[in-house]
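Hi R.,

Here are the chain sequences for the assembly we discussed:
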Amino acid sequence: MSDVAHRSGVHQATVSRVLNRPEVVKTETLRRVHKAIEELEYAPHTGARHLAGGRTGVIAAFVPDLANPFFAALLKAIQAAAHNMGSRVMVADTQFDAATEIEIVKKFAASVDAAVLCSPVASTAGLLAAAGSTQLVFVNRAAVRVPSVVVDQAEIVNLAVDHHRQLGHRHIAVVTGPSSYWSSAQRLRAAQRLGAVHVIDNADPTFEGGAKVLGSLLDADITAVVAFNDLMALGILRAAVDHGLSVPDDLSVVGSDNIEMAAMSSPALTTVAAPIDELGQTAVSLINWQTSAKKSRSRVSLPTRLIDRNSTAPRTQRPAQQTRG
Amino acid sequence: MSDVAHRSGVHQATVSRVLNRPEVVKTETLRRVHKAIEELEYAPHTGARHLAGGRTGVIAAFVPDLANPFFAALLKAIQAAAHNMGSRVMVADTQFDAATEIEIVKKFAASVDAAVLCSPVASTAGLLAAAGSTQLVFVNRAAVRVPSVVVDQAEIVNLAVDHHRQLGHRHIAVVTGPSSYWSSAQRLRAAQRLGAVHVIDNADPTFEGGAKVLGSLLDADITAVVAFNDLMALGILRAAVDHGLSVPDDLSVVGSDNIEMAAMSSPALTTVAAPIDELGQTAVSLINWQTSAKKSRSRVSLPTRLIDRNSTAPRTQRPAQQTRG
DNA sequence: CTGAAAGCGCTAACAA
DNA sequence: TTGTTAGCGCTTTCAG
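And here is the predicted structure of the full complex:
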């Protein structure tokens, strides 16, 4: 940095200002310094900057499972958004475990500017305590004291159930994930508010979990099901086919998330798409980059849309109103 | 740190030694210092440590595409291995692009202890130059000047082609990915060495790419194909089904990577499994943690195995020797 | 608007 | 085996 200072004929402190608060530097000086920076290919030392109290230029992204395609896509979006803001991102896997979440937040908090927690399960108080003065942002879980982006879970349930009803289905089930998830609770409430739908809660939100749910579906004479996510939907779909059922004729399945795999299965999976890229971008934008800036809206709910890849009326009954063949 | 020093009645420098070179400190002192560390819940400041020339405790992991399930799984493995070594990991997406790779390596190099590059496409020289004094490790690409872990590509081709031949297939195609990939070149050579197999090179290694390949397959009267990876295999499989073919009766498909999705498709996909966790672990273990340590073996090749989920002989011909129904 | 000077918390010679 | 002493490269008051 002092090299740059010499070359542009200013004091080292001025170079620092050019980098951190360009608005207080005369335009002419700004130009000269920038020129020197370029000629010398100077790049600030992140460790020193951190030590002296500045930004680290790093944000943390914590996801329950990196191998889960939904979270992989989310991480990709977060990474891209952070890159645009000039930040690097550190990742860690929390394994859907509250204790691990706390431990990891503690471990990373001191060395990052902010942490984005995706679908956290630990208590807000515990997380906040572990974070100390490091900023937190939640994705897919609402909280009063932490800025958050969520996907409207009630809308997911409504869209999916409506879809089924319009096709003429009358025996519809909504399956939720583990009760520790915020989204499970939301879906449960939405389903109950809707009435006249069968609810299966606390299911394992995986491919295998989906397969395990089929029995209960059959027992309850269900003709249409709203799965907790695409992985589970695919599991249900596969188990149904293995069981000799025809999908969607005997059992209509709607997933959620619109992971790539949903379009690849056959039959392709109808799903309620979450705007994953937007989720990631919003999460990053919720970070208070200027320590003292007024908080931006700290609670964003993103809309979803249904992607219909595969629709039929229930077998024994013609639909009252059919949207498409 | 000086608090800890006071509390344990030693000099601050000794605390530093306890943390960095415990072997030169008297056991009794070690104990006292550790006790103080715990009581004070002291945690070293990573920025300061970095500034003073020590480890950063961070490694970088660069993958072509975070949303690709193979790389997501690989990243998960790398993250887990790094976590075990007490390191955190920074990620970035290189988008299979040489220029982006160089740019990202430049951006991260100064702030990490080492960088693990997965399936890099940029030149070794360029990468090395961008990395400066930062250590590099390659995954899925061999290089003379850079420690690397690879999956044995020739073995993949051999296993898959053998599998098809044993089932009685005689019109076998091997499809490779973009020619900029090290693995594509390896597979090409392996296929040529094998002889009597049809080669389709430089295909798009995605689901859509697989679909596009079907035409060439049909034109060449192929009954069995070895795809570049599972995504492509799934694409071929799907296109074949859409085209009215029966899989595997009309067209037998083998993929590679054994991503989760391979087991979920129907029919399930036979694939050559790469030991992803081991890949990640090995990559991390290849990092020279002690600056001056003698290099460990710097070129590791990992074996693969075929996972048979779905086999049949070609339609018009009974197999000479059939391994299973 | 810019220069001067004081650390941030740690590692690494060097001395004892 | 431990204490002493310099910085590492930057941000930030405080003057001017």
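Residues 317-325 of chain A have pLDDT under 50 and may be disordered. Residues 1-2, 12-13, 16-17, 19-20, 44-45, 47-54 of chain A lie near DNA strand D (CB under 10 Å from a C1').

Let me know if anything looks off.

Best,
T.
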